[in-house]
Amino acid sequence: MSRVFCIPGIIFLFCAFVLSFLVSISTPFLPALDIARVHFENQQALVFGDQFGIWSPCSYSNEGARTCQAAGHGYSVSISNLDRDSVTTIGSSWTRGLAVHPVATAVIFIALCLSLSTHVTVTLISSLTSFLAALLTLIAFAIDIALFVFVRHETRDVADIGANTNTAPGFWLTFVSLLLCLLAGCTVCFGRRRDRMSDASYPAATTAAPEKRPGGFLGRFRRRRN
Predict the structure, then answer these.
(1) Does the record bear Transmembrane helix in its keywords (predicted)?
(2) What are the helix (H) ranges across the chain?
(3) Distance CA 66, CA 31 (A)
């Protein structure tokens, strides 16, 4: 397959892998790449989870000190006001699915390794793996959306805290990684289609027409002279 079409696909997969890998680390190791953030305007909340990441939530005190739960698969966060008469809990069932992120990252890495090959069959498998990675990334992004919507809905019901929930950088990096995986898969498919069309467009070989000799009396006369 022509490397003109393979190189963009490799670049797309590499960028998607880097972004997905960073998001998969997330909190508590990379707190800047969380999925959702909750800001409390009234500062009247008892909460352990201003930031919702892949492996744990993190909270910030008024002095800016950051505290995170121990990293693990699935976590719960309770939010209440100072009087504790209004409480909500984000259960582990809403955060356990975030583990799809590292799975998608692993599939993207496999697709990237396969895309380095020049063999047509391996390149086709790389294209299919890219679409599989896009599907897993789409599932991870859907889980991110569900978590964001649920956190936003639940924190609004807590009285006297003025909660404002927003999407975080990790949320949008996942979306960009999804687009890059789709572009990588389509690039390889179009390259394979272009190569197939170019192979079928070679001009047919032309055969030289036999020399036509004159017939009749003049033809016999000329052959006798020769």
Answers:
(1) yes
(2) 3-29, 100-115, 120-156, 169-199, 216-225
(3) 9
pLDDT in tens, 94-121: 999 999 999 999 999 999 998 888 787 8
Q: Which H or E run contains 36?
A: strand 36-40
Cα 106 from Cα 181, distance rounded (Å)? 13
Domains by residue range for the chain, with CATH:
2-194 (1.20.140.150)
Which residues, at least 6 apart from 19, have a Cβ–Cβ distance to it below 8 Å?
173, 174, 176, 177, 180
Least confident among 56-60, 129-133, 144-148, 190-194: 190-194
Q: What is the DSSP string of 147-195?
A: HHHHHHHHHHTSTTS-EEEEE-HHHHHHHHHHHHHHHHHHHHHHHHHHH
What are the tens digits of pLDDT across the range 41-77?
765 555 555 889 999 888 877 666 778 888 888 898 8
Gap between the Cα atoms of 112 and 162, Å rounded: 45
